[in-house]
Amino acid sequence: MKKFTTLTGLVAPLDRSHVDTDAIIPKQFLKSIKRSGFGPNLFDEWRYLDHGEPGRDNSLRPLNEEFVLNQARYADASILLTRSNFGCGSSREHAPWALEDYGFKVILAESFADIFYSNCFKNGILPITLSAEQIESLFNVVLSNPGYSLHVDLEKQLIRYPDDSELSFDLDPYRKECLLDGLDEIGQTLNHAEEIRSFEAKHQNNYPWLFKEVK
Amino acid sequence: MSGKTLYDKLWEAHEVRKDTTGTSLLYIDRQLIHEVTSPQAFEGLRMNGRQPWRVNANVAVPDHNIPTKDREKGIEDPISRLQVETLASNTSEYGITEFDMSDPRQGIVHVIGLEQGITLPGMTVVCGDSHTSTHGAVGALAFGIGTSEVEHVLATQCLIQEKSKNMLIQIDGKLQIGVSAKDVVLAVIGKIGTAGGTGYAIEFGGETIREMSMEGRMTVCNMTIEAGARAGLVAVDETTIDYVRTRNFGPRGEELEHAMAHWQTLHSDADAEYGSVVFLDASEIKPMVTWGTSPEMVAPFDGFVPDPKHSKNPEQIRKALAYMGLEANMAIEDIRFDKVFIGSCTNSRIEDLREAASIVKGRKVSDSIQLAMVVPGSGLVKAQAELEGLDKIFLDAGFEWRDPGCSMCLAMNADRLEPGERCASTSNRNFEGRQGQGGRTHLLSPAMAAAAAIEGKITNLSKYEKN
What we know:
The complex is a heterodimer of chains A (215) and B (467).
Chain A: E1 6-13, H1 21-24, H2 44-47, E2 79-81, H3 94-102, E3 106-109, H4 114-121, E4 126-129, H5 132-144, E5 149-153, E6 158-160, E7 166-168, H6 173-181, H7 185-190, H8 193-206
Parallel strand pairs in A: 1-2, 2-3, 3-4
Antiparallel strand pairs in A: 1-5, 5-6, 6-7
Chain B: H1 6-12, E1 15-18, E2 24-27, E3 30-33, H2 39-47, E4 58-60, H3 78-94, E5 97-98, H4 109-116, E6 124-127, E7 141-144, H5 147-156, E8 158-161, E9 165-172, H6 181-192, E10 200-205, H7 207-210, H8 214-222, E11 231-233, H9 238-244, H10 253-263, E12 276-281, E13 288-290, E14 298-300, H11 314-324, E15 339-342, H12 350-360, E16 371-374, H13 379-387, H14 390-397, E17 400-401, E18 422-425, E19 440-443, H15 446-455
Parallel strand pairs in B: 3-4, 3-6, 4-5, 6-7, 9-10, 9-12, 10-11, 15-16, 15-18, 16-17, 18-19
Antiparallel strand pairs in B: 1-2, 2-8, 13-14
Helix pairs in contact in B: 2-5, 6-8, 12-14, 12-15
């Protein structure tokens, strides 16, 4: 699993609530059997003016100049600032794959959808939940200061502003540990293989019909 | 100490261990697998030299990419074809049962799981698909997961999970004629919002749910994720047991007796406490129609499109109306369609098709509708509908009668909207581009979709009551 420790990066503001995973990466790109290469099609329908299909050369497509990520001042942004319920809808892990492939390592939002939130941690992305007031003030400062960057420290659970003031954020300790160490979660679980086996034996004994073969 | 909720009981019965960090290792009884979210999981398994923990806990079916007509010609799009072939090769490599495109039992994963008794009360059920919440209708703990978690379940039969909070949505009262489970769940989402259930497992209870058929409960649980909750649940009752006991892969004989005794315990205790309780009066619910780009943007059929000027989120509504090509304050009944889609894991079961057919019978699809299609949820639903002559009713009216799959719910196959086209759809998501780039989706019930096909627009169902 990919690690995350600290990051200093440019912030791009996506001023929308309820950004769904269909918008993050449209369905036609889900036909890929790979885990990489989704970045050029991140937010495809907002980013380009034409219809995107897998295999097309995206550098030849007309850009929607109004879309925030197409503005020169946000080129190379690695922190995405957005509103509430980010990542709602489909469970597709292609959404964090696309965000990560594009270069986003941190997402700041008022709230995240559950499945998306959990998917981020498996892919080295740190989703940070802040209050509506904190998000609003970040939108103001990012919009009025070109080149606005933040420093994020996962170990200390801190966001440092350019003026060196700091803001702390909450995070589940297990998720923090996995992300900091880039832990192989499957390997972690398999450390408990004996416990799983003994649970399974008891479970099968109690509810044998759950183990019936489907053919 | 207060009693336990159904969710608490299901959780505890599957908790292998609890970690000091507050997470638990949860045992998974059943994993359903489809072609879109599994290839990278199998690849991960292979790269790490791991084997599936319990092969027969997994059942696979292709549904998202597959064509709904001319199947004998195979899949035209080479990328879709490769994905479906990859599912076949992965499942055959590991010995996992797959209902492939030629299997009469093939269909939408969330239709066939319950139809076959592959998912049963008391199970933990996962799938790399957010609509896995559907299976909660039989009193199973069922939720959608990402591809990394698909791999985790393949390799360990477990997931590392944090327990959700409990929410009860209590719905009492009698539904008006023409009002269905779809309208109930759209009304719920309209009330609590698309993030209202985030962090919760939602149990649906009350007289209205008790009186609802199993298939209606599936529709309600299916769209729990559209209210932000990963899992939706309905307590087991006689309706559940009547449905489950005859399923293909359910228990038989003495084992069925034991199972039924256990299933009877799958309800919340009378003194269970919930983190949140929401009440709805079913008698006030009307046929619902979404007007925007999120399922919470919903109104009764006789309502009006909102005015951003009088809204809490004017910018959001303005964006939605611009995308949808609708005017503020216009009547919902004035919304006219180009296409009609009856299908999806929300509304493609036999009762849905009967409900739609009862409206369509003896009538014709409006000339203003370019395409009206019915996509049954499974091969068996299709066969049953044909046995009842429903296919003939739809075909005579001018509908297309297709083969089972996800189809135009998400348009990964050839079935899609063109930019600007407006669709009356029984599916679950009206997001921008969901049914095709630039396409405009209005979510509604099978009866409302059928009436929209006949009239070309949103219609008061009361005129069809005599049918």
